[in-house]
Amino acid sequence: MSSNTMQINFVLNHEKVQAVIETHHTVLDVLRNTFSLYGARESCGQGLCGCCTVIVDGKSVSGCLYLAAALDGCTVQTVESLDAGGSLHPIQQAFIDCGAFQCGFCTSGFLLMSKQLLESNPDPSEAEIRNHLSGNLCRCAAYPEIIQAVRLAASRINTAQQEA
């Protein structure tokens, strides 16, 4: 390893992984180029749109700005982690059922932020949903459908938990 590379070890979508990275690489660089995970996308490159959202140790981060070196010892969750055993996560299904995506570019960030919201607040109001998702931008303007999908997912998740 050269002086501008380092090895990092972390948990990625429930699997222990390691990577040799250059110290200037972002999370987005490593996810896409090392692990072939393309769900998070760079759009604005300034951490303003949410397209590159990933969850690091339970907190959402902008993958286009967050340095990969900071992942060492962390747990990282990408949108690809929602597909458990070939079944869609209830949030993914709700987005489909409500037509809450159009071009799909922003969808991965909205899905992860919605999951994060519903884990901390299983029955959010419309205002709480809007507030939590306010850092994510949808250029196709599917906002009403996104809000509807989050509410539908919350209902389905709560019903499934009550039945279990």
UniProtKB/TrEMBL annotation:
Residues 6-82 form the 2Fe-2S ferredoxin-type domain. InterPro entries: 2Fe-2S-bd, 2Fe-2S-bd_dom_sf, 2Fe-2S_ferredoxin-like_sf, 2Fe-2S_ferredoxin-type, Beta-grasp_dom_sf, Diverse_Oxidoreductases. The keyword Metal-binding applies. Pfam families: Fer2, Fer2_2. GO terms for molecular function: 2 iron, 2 sulfur cluster binding; metal ion binding; oxidoreductase activity. The keyword Iron-sulfur applies. Keywords: 2Fe-2S, Iron, Iron-sulfur, Metal-binding, Oxidoreductase. CDD domains: fer2. PANTHER family: OXIDOREDUCTASE WITH IRON-SULFUR SUBUNIT (PTHR44379:SF5). This is Carbon-monoxide dehydrogenase small subunit. It comes from Pusillimonas noertemannii.
